[in-house]
Every structure is written in C-alpha cells, then in structure tokens.
Design brief:
CATH topology of one domain: Arc Repressor Mutant, subunit A
Strand order of the largest sheet: 1-3-2
Strand content: 5-15%
Distance between the termini: 93 Å
CATH class of one domain: Mainly Alpha
CATH architecture of one domain: Orthogonal Bundle
Structural class: mainly alpha
Number of helices: 4
Number of strands: 3
Radius of gyration: 36 Å
Length: about 150
C-alpha cells in the first residue's frame, strides 16, 4: 500500500503514541494534525480511513471499527515494527528500490542502444567483408593463373 512522505510523520506518531502510552488512539484525533487543518470533515474522514488502512496493511496496529470512528491500539507486531524503523524505514526502502529500478532500466536502455549500434556496424562490416572476399578470390585466381603460366613457360 502506497503512502507519501507527508504520511510518515502521522503514521509514526500514531505508532509512537500507542507504544508510549500503552493505550488506544481514536482516529478523530487525526483532524488535529497540521496536514489536515484545511480539510473538510468528509475529507478528514476519508483520509482517516486511508491512514487506518495503511496501518492495517502493515499489521503494525490493531484497528477497532466503530460507528463513531475507529480506534487504533497496539498489537503483537507494533513494537517490532517500530524497532525496525517504522514507516520512515519502509519509505526509504521503497525509494532505494525505485532508484535501483531506475538505474537498471537506464543500464538496460544503454545496453539496447549499444546492441543496436553493434548490429549496424556488423551489417556494414558484412557488406565490406563480401567485397573483400570477392577481391581475395579474384587475386587468388590471378595468382593461380600466373603460377600456371610460369610453370608452362619453364
């Protein structure tokens, strides 16, 4: 599940809060975050659902869905998740993966260009080689004729 750099602070702060206070947090508290200050209530509700879905996807918190909103509390994986760097680590890993993928694609493109250039050179050389082959055959035949003439002359 995708999240962006601006989500990391909120996601990791939720993890920190539920670990430090050993209690739950209600998703309605998300509206206090600076990121959501200009959001309409319906937008905050959608954003809250998205944040909760991210937490569920990474199995780093237990979500209790209720009519008046969701509560987020720690689960068996929350502490281990935090010890392994939390969402910041996941985000950096994804950036590194994308960078390596981009480098790989660049190398593959360069290799493909190089192969095309080599094929063009090979085609040009093949034409030249045909001419050189015919020239060598003609010279060989001339040498053979000259050798036969010298033998007949003696």
């Amino acid at each position: 599940m995708k999240f962006d750099k601006s989500d990391i602070e909120i996601l990791d702060s939720i993890i920190d809060f539920i670990l430090e206070h050993d209690t739950y947090i209600h998703d309605s508290s998300l509206k206090k975050a600076d990121k959501y200050k200009d959001y309409k209530p319906s937008e905050i509700r959608l954003e809250s659902e998205r944040i909760v879905s991210i937490l569920e996807f990474y199995d780093c918190a237990k979500i209790k869905r209720r009519g008046d909103g969701n509560t987020i509390e720690k689960n068996a994986h929350t502490k281990k998740f935090k010890e392994h760097g939390g969402f910041e680590n996941i985000y950096q890993d994804e950036l590194n993966r994308l960078e390596k993928l981009k480098e790989k694609e660049t190398l593959e493109t360069d290799l493909a260009k190089s192969n095309i250039e080599a094929n063009v050179l090979n085609t040009e050389n093949a034409r030249k080689n045909k001419w050189y082959t015919w020239i060598n055959i003609i010279i060989g035949v001339l040498n053979l004729v000259l050798l036969v003439l010298q033998l007949l002359k003696d």
